[in-house]
């Protein structure tokens, strides 16, 4: 019994990066690329043995603490500050001080001055990745100690990102973007057909609007499950299984005999659809280095953002000439095409499947550890980090703005400009859609450019929060200004169609300067929990999308499009201020909360050990 409990605890805390599980390349950890990476790290660590003064000096360059926290706080928390990738592809690592035990000895302590050693750590897997081993060595995290929640980010070796060719990566980004296009387009394509759906089911347009709000609600809830599951079972398996379910639920919606069936299948479609966006974002993080990740993310997000804008236009064409059910038959065909593409073209991209950590456990212990891995609370708990919460609010303000802009177009612009058909109203959705496509070419590249600039300014140190700087002027100035001009020009009937189209187009472009930075930050700031951080971000943003979809029309009818746009602009500005605070203090917040979580989990572990009559774990 005690053996199983100990094995379960070890499995739960096994490092989440293990090149032994690189299914994508088919190579084990002793492959040439990983071996080269290990050799490079070993050489650097051996060199550090005789350089005590240099090791002390590097404390001042910890990326996560920043230069403003030198001195008194540097010895409070074990950390690794990751630097940028050098031109020859090698990764530099600055190692902070550690008061924890040497994992190779199992007890006692070893300061960094004595030279950290890469010794095997007793875990459920046979070997660890280079990055995870370095982290465990510096922090003193071993099998005889409680799992330590990680605060300072760790740079992953370059070899992990070289397993695919550039062309293969580009093809996968295109495929993932197409998958990400499916769920959002389904959320808005039906907007042009609300009257037709209501007539067939003998209900009102308000009831159909409720189904759209529920669609967004369940898109927000599903990340709590799909994010952790993609860490356990891998990206490819989750993507394939959810695509199969998405195809089935799309067929069910197209054949719905009554309003109840329509609601049920729409909700189920939404629940599966978010997995495409989550897995796509996580796969981008698996494939691209941090200094080029936002570029790939920008291309990927072009599909997820263009979907809501192009959906009403496509839906308008369909309901003008055919039944509204054709919308969902088209959705079924597109999802089937994506399913074939993923099955044929996409390898597994995740660095380590957590399911491998369960090997050797008995059934009850395996079930307990598995639940701890997929528990939705893992996602919610990350919101104790203020930087994660504020990044979520920034994303939420953008999605609120997007859906509160798109949802009422038919009701607001049709009477303003005397439009009479769904197709005419659908043309307005092309403006932000074209903006999203245009922003794809520049938004992500600009974010990566800003990151590289700040790496140079910091003398080779990369801090995740620097990535958010590229989004600040667009989130706090450009989009709010466009929203105010759009809202008040329509409210006061000035400017005509060109002004409306231009402001909607500029909003689309500006959002592609914000979303790649925010998504990539979520994946960068905690690489070991990247899919869980991005899951929490999507959870919050789609809850706000649900609220925006539900309240937009009633609010506009009550206070007018001008004042409603003012509220949206104010939300954007406040979120931008929160993001600015994250840029300046986010690293400090991460370290402070990380230490607090370390202390709390250590205390829980020691209490559990005391109840079993075993010695407490060594303090880190």
From TrEMBL:
Residues 71-87 have a biased composition (Low complexity). PANTHER family: MAJOR FACILITATOR SUPERFAMILY (PTHR23502), TRANSPORTER, PUTATIVE (AFU_ORTHOLOGUE AFUA_3G11760)-RELATED (PTHR23502:SF64). It is a multi-pass membrane protein. It comes from Grosmannia clavigera (strain kw1407 / UAMH 11150) (Blue stain fungus). It is found in: Membrane. The lineage of its organism: Eukaryota, Fungi, Dikarya, Ascomycota, Pezizomycotina. Gene3D superfamilies: MFS general substrate transporter like domains (1.20.1250.20). One of its GO terms (molecular function) is transmembrane transporter activity. Residues 1-115 are annotated as: Disordered. Residues 172-593 form the Major facilitator superfamily (MFS) profile domain. This is Major facilitator superfamily transporter. Keywords: Membrane, Transmembrane, Transmembrane helix. Its main location: membrane. The chain crosses the membrane at residues 171-195, 207-226, 238-257, 263-284, 296-321, 327-346, 382-403, 423-447, 468-489, 495-518, 539-556, 562-587.
